[in-house]
Specification:
Layout (H helix, E strand, L loop, with lengths): L4 E4 L5 H12 L3 E6 L5 H10 L5 E5 L5 H14 L5 E4 L14 H29 L2 E6 L2 H5 L5 H21 L4 E8 L5 H4 L3 H9 L9 H11 L11 E4 L7
Parallel strand pairs: 1-2, 1-4, 2-3, 4-5, 5-6, 6-7
Helix pairs in contact: 1-9, 3-4, 4-6
This protein binds acetoacetyl-coenzyme A and NADP nicotinamide-adenine-dinucleotide phosphate.
């Protein structure tokens, strides 16, 4: 595996941390973003303690296009061009549509969907020039099947895959692949925020009988970002313990 620069948004969260570890284990230079400052030094110290030293973090609100552009320019100047982009940052603001506010809608669409434009735009030209690139969008089972209380999130996550399919066609000839991963319910803070009684009912609907592990999603990101995955593009790969089969 040739060493590359991999940029993972939201890399200090549950799934993001596992993705950063996998990409670092594969030998890449890993760059991640965070929006709320305060825990980045501790997170970096943990990573260094695990032996991952070529790992870097930058503060950036992925919902802000100008901030993404200037962050990518700094990364390119400090480290070099980005070859692997994992659009992983995301939030939920769950409420039935009756109770959902315009702020809930805007926050989720901006952070989960606008961010995909905001981050892909500044890295894509470098990938096309290099003749190699991997873009992996972390969507959700709920973008595939919908979910009570998530009109905003389901719309954003379904939109991510529309983006994937269109861009995959535009850049396929230049060695750049674009894929979506749609995880089911994975044991992170995002799922632990669902009320326990509701969460238990959801787990009961998963044939495998448990929540997924962040490392399981990370392993798939590792494969999709590799040189072996050059024939996979425009795909939406589900990993949901059998909860939703398409
Ligand atoms: N299906 C059908 N009816 C449902 C329902 C469901 N899944 N959930 C709630 N209802 C019904 C209630 O029984 C109640 O009915 P009555 O009025 O007849 O009594 C009514 O809807 C309540 O509606 P409210 O608007 O008052 O809803 P609420 O305030 O009780 O909360 C909710 C609703 C916030 C959506 C809550 O049910 C919830 O948190 N659900 C989980 C949503 C979810 O799965 N989120 C995923 C988060 S993790 C993630 O997003 C990661 C990922 O990608 C997988
Ligand atoms: P998480 O632990 O809550 O992590 C989310 C990450 O996103 C955090 O690192 C957070 O960083 C970052 N983030 C949020 N808003 C941001 C913003 N405006 N700018 C930059 N970064 C921002 O969630 P997770 O479970 O790991 O989820 C990761 C991704 O997987 C999300 O896109 C989520 O929708 C998706 N997903 C999760 C599940 C699941 O079951 N957990 C299932 C399917 C899909 P800060 O704290 O610094 O803001």
């Amino acid at each position: 595996m040739t060493k590359k620069i991999a940029l993972v948004t939201g890399g200090m969260g549950g799934i993001g941390t596992a993705i950063c570890k996998t990409l670092a284990e594969t030998g890449h230079t890993v760059v991640t973003t965070y929006s709320k400052s305060g825990r980045e030094q501790a997170w970096l110290a943990d990573m260094n303690g695990l032996g991952f030293t070529d790992i870097h973090c930058y503060q950036c609100d992925v919902a802000d296009f100008a901030a993404c552009q200037s962050m990518v320019a700094r990364i390119v100047k400090d480290l070099g061009p980005v070859s692997i982009l994992v659009n992983n940052a995301g939030i939920t603001r769950d409420a039935s549509f009756k109770k959902q506010t315009k702020d809930d809608w805007d926050a989720v669409i901006r952070t989960n969907l606008d961010s995909v434009f905001n981050m892909t735009k500044p890295v894509l030209d470098g990938m096309l020039e290099a003749g190699f690139g991997r873009i992996i969008n972390i969507s959700s089972i709920n973008g595939q099947k919908g979910q009570f209380g998530q009109t905003n999130y389901s719309a954003a996550k379904a939109g991510m895959h529309g983006f994937t399919m269109a861009l995959a066609q535009e850049v396929a000839k230049k060695g750049v692949t674009v894929n979506t991963i749609s995880p089911g319910y994975i044991a992170t803070e995002m799922v632990m925020a669902v009320p326990e009684d509701v969460r238990n009912k959801i787990i009961a609907q998963i044939p495998v009988g448990r929540l997924g592990k962040p490392e399981e999603i990370a392993a798939l990101v590792g494969f999709l970002s590799s040189e072996h995955a050059g024939f996979i593009t425009g795909s939406n790969i589900a990993m949901n313990g059998g909860q939703h089969m398409m």
